[in-house]
Design goal:
The chain is α/β, with parallel strands linked by helices. The chain has a single domain, classed as NAD(P)-binding Rossmann-like Domain (Rossmann fold). 39% of the residues lie in helices and 14% in strands. The protein contains six helices and five strands. The chain has a five-stranded parallel beta sheet with strand order 3-2-1-4-5, with helices on both faces. α1 links the parallel β1 and β2. α4 crosses α6. The longest helix is centred in the middle third of the chain and has 21 residues. 38% of the residues are buried.
């Protein structure tokens, strides 16, 4: 089977994704920002790669030889500094897109939550055609779109 690279692998969704990929026979590498995260990734059967979304070298190393990238890492929460959300959710995603492209990754899967669609109204009858909400006052919702990251790819990779 193929080699997959996962970000957010020490979290709930990313961790279950690692388990599923391993069960399907894939070799998995996952980005780890701490030794605790690395231990959780190892426990799920993946190879941890030390670094974060601002670390171009770590991203390039992890993506090398992979066919798939699954991006589940994000700055989350109900409050915080806009700069941190922008740095992680926009520029970090742009860095990962760049590293994956340079490594020849065939497929990039951007994983998120329904919160990317929130802008103060309830979500009713929502499906995959619902627009993202960069106009949202919620920091996660306003920064979690791959289109914003694709535009940010044109900027330098340092964050």
């Amino acid at each position: 089977m193929s080699v997959a690279f996962v970000t957010g692998g020490s979290g709930f969704i990313g961790g279950r994704l690692i388990e599923r990929l391993r069960a399907d026979g894939h070799t998995v590498r996952a980005l780890a920002r701490s030794e605790d995260a690395a231990a959780r990734i190892r426990a799920r059967g993946a190879e941890p790669v030390s670094g974060d979304l601002a670390d171009a070298v770590a991203l390039g190393t992890a993506a090398k030889g992979c066919e798939l990238t699954f991006h589940a890492a994000a700055a989350l929460g109900d409050w915080g500094e806009r700069e941190e959300f922008e740095r992680t959710n926009v520029q970090g995603t742009a860095n990962l897109l760049q590293a994956s492209a340079e490594a020849g990754v065939r497929r990039f899967v951007h994983v998120g939550t329904e919160a990317a669609l929130l802008a103060g109204e309830p979500l009713v009858s929502v499906d995959e055609t619902a627009p993202l909400r960069p106009d949202s006052r919620a920091l996660y919702s306003s920064t979690r779109g791959p289109r914003r990251a694709a535009r940010a790819r044109r900027k330098p990779r340092g964050v």
